[in-house]
Structures are given as structure tokens and as C-alpha cells.
């Protein structure tokens, strides 16, 4: 039962972090505007692919999960 309790706490913390990111993500100055993020604008078409932001967030989440497992 202790393992399940830890998992529920971790899932709750992740949900809180995602909620904060959604709520206040636009106020983080560099998020979505890194040099590796692609933005293509045409007359009737806009394509945005946040490659560098995705890699940075993946690294951050991986580090958090690594330290929680120890």
C-alpha cells in the first residue's frame, strides 16, 4: 500500500505542476520562444513546432523523476 500512496502523491504533484504551467505558462518569458522553436507564417497558414522547448521540458521532467526514484 505504501507504493500506491507514493504514486498517488507523485501523480497529484504532477497535475498541480501541469495546472500551474497552463495557468502561468504565458508569463514565463523564454517558454515557447527559444532559438530551436520553429514558426512558419504564410497568408492562410501558421505552423508552430516548439522543438527546443519540448526538449528542455523533457529534460526537466526526466531530472525530477530521476531524483524522485532515488
Give the helix/strand layout.
Blueprint: H1 2-24, E1 37-41, E2 46-50, H2 51-69
Antiparallel strand pairs: 1-2
Briefly characterize the structure.
The protein is of the alpha+beta class and 70 residues long.
Would you write up a description of this structure?
The protein is an alpha+beta fold and 70 residues long. It has one domain (2-69). Helices cover 60% and strands 14% of the residues. A two-stranded antiparallel sheet has the order 1-2. Strand 1 and strand 2 (46-50) form a beta hairpin. The longest helix is centred in the first third of the chain and has 23 residues, at 2-24. The radius of gyration is 16 Å and the shape is elongated. It starts with a helix and ends with a helix.
The fraction of residues assigned to DSSP E strands is 5-15%
Mean of residue pLDDT?
A: 84
Structural class: alpha+beta
Shape: elongated
Tag the structure with descriptive keywords.
alpha+beta, 2 helices, 2 strands, 70 residues
